[in-house]
Design goal:
The chain is an alpha+beta fold. Helix content is 35%, strand content 16%. The protein binds flavin mononucleotide.
Length: 190
Amino acid sequence: MSKEAKTDYEIHALLKKRWSPRAFADRKIEKEKLQRMFEAARWSPSASNEQPWYFIIGEKGDETYDKIYDCLVEFNQKWAKFAPILFISVGKENNTYQYDVGQSLAHLTFQATADGLYVHQMAGFSKGKAKELFDLPDYHQALTAIAVGYIGKPEILHPRMQKSELAERERKKMDVFVFSGKFGNKSKLI
Ligand SMILES: Cc1cc2nc3c(=O)[nH]c(=O)nc-3n(C[C@H](O)[C@H](O)[C@H](O)COP(=O)(O)O)c2cc1C
């Protein structure tokens, strides 16, 4: 199944291909692919090269996976259970840590996409519970939960989720967020 972005300008094939599915196949992810994902995160830029990112990885069947699953809001539990890997991102507080951890996940996501995998990030989880369950040190915050896997069949999802799984992807037009001169002034680029 492809939900490739219908772009106004030509972009890299991997960027077009990436999307956030909820149906994952019952298939393990190769260790090397997981290693490459976190290697990609490792080489992303960060302010003063502080690299404020940390990841706690659970594989279906292990205790970490179950703990992450327990932190998810009910809506996310309904689909994330299909993913063979769940992990959380953690940031060490500084001026830009949320920006930097998000960017490391962008790099991770594109490496995963290049390896035929799909990544679905979630804000819908209890950060407090994750902090407690994973014994996060002071000044370290859980930021997102992430599901990774091979794409699965939409039919495995709850009927209401199937609809969005199959729906066309939507984006704002560029003229509402690319400006020049001052905020709100459409750029000549567009
Ligand atoms: C920081 C962040 C938090 C998100 N939280 C959730 C979530 O809790 N549950 C969910 O189903 N999707 C979540 N998403 C997925 C977004 O809804 C999705 O990326 C967006 O609708 C665009 O769709 P696409 O990624 O398929 O292009 C999240 C995405 C990001 C980046």
